[in-house]
Amino acid sequence: MKRPIAPRAEIIVSDPRWRASVGNIEQLVQRTCQMVQRYGMIFAPDAPGPSFVFSDNRHIQRLNAQFRGKNKPTNVLTFEPPSPLMGGDIILAYQTMQREAEQGRKSLREHTTHLLVHGLLHLAGYDHHHPGEARKMEGLETFILRRMGLPDPWKPRLQGHMSAPAPLILSR
Length: 172
Fold this sequence. Notes:
The chain has 172 residues and is of the alpha/beta class. The chain contains 6 helices and 4 strands; from the N terminus they run βααβαββααα. The chain is globular, with a radius of gyration of 15 Å.
């Protein structure tokens, strides 16, 4: 059974490079949550929202070692809530995300949006441990991102091509 994602969210920006590179993080998180709710068919108007932590490699490496036994940084960690009364946590590492965005020839904002969608779908109960689950989750990620005006994150980019950030349009 899929878990609902609430529109209310706590946002912590512990690395100031996020704001300089991505812009208005609060709008990005709000819009991404709205789109995942709408197109992921997840509804929860009164449930608690997740926490989003925009951090760095050092912080995420400590968490990755502690909770996954992997002593290295990763792009994003998603922690499911211990109870339905909590919203879960999504933590992103600036340096890893920036490097991946450059390697993938996309803006950091675009890559961040993709991994926010990915993390929110994890919190909603989607997973990618098996090929069928992975195809379903990747397909839903692509569907949501296209509705947000972003390209398919799974298609390779042409050399030298960087996509422009999508305009933020908040719907109510």
